[in-house]
Design a protein that fits this description.
- With 86 residues, the protein is α+β, with helices and mostly antiparallel strands.
- It has one domain.
- Helix content is 33%, strand content 24%.
- It has 2 helices and 5 strands.
- The strands form 2 sheets. The protein has a 3-stranded antiparallel beta sheet. Strands 2-3 form a two-stranded antiparallel sheet.
- The longest helix has 23 residues.
- The chain is elongated, with a radius of gyration of 19 Å.
- The relative contact order is 0.18.
């Protein structure tokens, strides 16, 4: 029984490590983005992650990048709220 308990504890520890690594890993498509700025849109856009329409006047977040020719990236509030929780 002690062996079974140790096996269960070891499996749980490995699972927790994987979750922690996934939560802190920067997604490849976000590597050039250093932050997200909430704003109110003055034109229609689309959420990069869920493809939801973001109408003029809607709240959204724009990815901030120090790369001079970076394509503008927008996320809806729901998708930006999931950052670091994946």
């Amino acid at each position: 029984m002690v062996g079974d308990g140790l096996e269960i504890a070891s499996t749980a520890r490995r699972g927790a490590e994987r979750v922690r690594e996934a939560a802190t890993r920067v997604r490849a498509q976000d590597a050039g983005i250093y932050g997200w700025q909430e704003l109110i849109l003055n034109r229609d856009e689309r959420c990069r992650d869920c493809d939801r329409e973001l109408d003029r006047g809607a709240r959204a977040c724009r990815g901030l990048s120090d790369q001079p020719n970076a394509t503008p990236v927008f996320l809806c509030p729901g998708c930006v709220g999931r950052i670091g929780k994946e």
